[in-house]
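so my prof wants the structure for this chain in the tokens format not the other one, which i didnt know existed until like an hour ago. anyway here's the sequence
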Amino acid sequence: MSLKHLAIGVLVVVCAFVAPAAAQKNELSGILGRTFIADQGISGAPSYDPYLRFGEGLTFEVNYARRVLEGNLWSVALEVPFVVDPVEKVHSEQDLTPKQYASFFVTPAARLSVFPEQAVSPWVSFGGGFGYFHESSTLEFGEANPGKTGTSTGVLQGGVGLDVRISRHFTLRGEGRDFWSGVPQLNVDTGKSREHNIFAGGGIVWHF
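here's what i got, hopefully its the right format
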């Protein structure tokens, strides 16, 4: 799947939500944070440093949501988180490791909020979608990357967060999301076919 196809997919999903939403409660959020990925052991690597290590990539999220169900103390919204980690650094003692990669996740989800009309509202989210890794064309030590430089994957997403209302139309948001995805092609054998991409961040939500 190319980045162009990913962008088209995002547009289609967002339009599907927006089209019937004129009489609904909508929100658009922007979140800034970091993605954390645990070190992974490399099969056959030198014993003094047998790990694949990841940088803590600066990550951006844009999220459209619309409320579809609500009660006195709760509400359910459909949301489309689009999360981009443009530069995830990679390090190992193996000569074939790409210098870095970018990741893109789109995971339509259902979000359950408690006390949605109060000053403070916690929430949980669960959904699934797809992702794309764009591996660097150069290796960590400068040579050309002989491996694959585009990897698509299915993704499951689970998240928790807290919204704090600052005005009628705006709230502050802190959140954490786990994107459980396939792995990028990094030219080493870690024995893993999936990994946890933990995103933690904060930002602002516009309600309209």
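also thought this was worth mentioning. The helical segments are 3-18.
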